[in-house]
Amino acid sequence: xxxxxxxxxxxxxxxxxxxxxxxxxxxxxxxxxxxxxxxxxxxxxxxxxxxxxxxxxxxxxxxxxxxxxxxxxxxxxxxxxxxxxxxxxxxxxxxxxxxxxxxxxxxxxxxxxxxxxxxxxxxxxxxxxxxxxxxxxxxxxxxxxxxxxxxxxxxxxxxxxxxxxxxxxxxxxxxxxxxxxxxxxxxxxxxxxxxxxxxxxxxxxxxxxxxxxxxxxxxxxxxxxxxxxxxxxxxxxxxxxxxxxxxxxxxxxxxxxxxxxxxxxxxxxxxxxxxxxxxxxxxxxxxxxxxxxxxxxxxxxxxxxxxxxxxxxx
Length: 314
Known about the structure:
Order of helices and strands: HHHHHHHHHHHHHHH
Number of helices: 15
CATH architecture of the largest domain: Orthogonal Bundle
CATH class of the largest domain: Mainly Alpha
Distance between the termini: 15 Å
Radius of gyration: 24 Å
CATH topology of the largest domain: MetI-like fold
Mean pLDDT: 83
């Protein structure tokens, strides 16, 4: 297990370097001049002298290979420079934004799990029953509704019409209800359908029949054997979605004015705040890789048929 984790962690290095390289290339082929973007954000008229001074200060007059090397070293030290807009260290601002994003991500994932796992499991066990039709209908609705439209719809009913929940911002747990519902509905749709299909597939496996012929109770078979193996696709989906949510649910944060990392990134794009954009891409890559690694390790624990050797060779 330790060797497997070590190999996976080492594999992160070239992926991160490649991510930094792509970001570096895109910034340099972009028509936006970082020096001009900085001066514009500071409300300073970009004269030729000031542009040359800022290019020298940012190291943009050096060879591209040297610039890339400096970028890699600084990012390895979590030094992303200073925001063009606020003139504050980018990492300090990101650290201040992450708790709000993490709170929203955890609440959405938790709510999606406690709803989708029982719903998907019961939908498969009682196939073509009322609960199965309800589950499938909810999945289709959740997968079809755009998040921004659902968010505004919830605001209209629960905030404007009924005046039960706050419209925007972050404060008490009431502010968390509408963003969580907006994010989790799509996740519930995905996880419910994944689990239902996986459970139905596992029910056709020979080990289920053998367990029944041995006289093992159906409840034990379903919970200890079928569900334990069938939940693997859901864990994989969690690994992807947790990384996505931790980098900011951009649409939902914009709709509800949630002061998280995703909204911070959107503002950086509009303001051409290049250090913030670089930081976002770097952290997004790291979070996706780490969350997928954790999901793989959980699957190894849940399903003993998955060999470490096979995983490390794939």
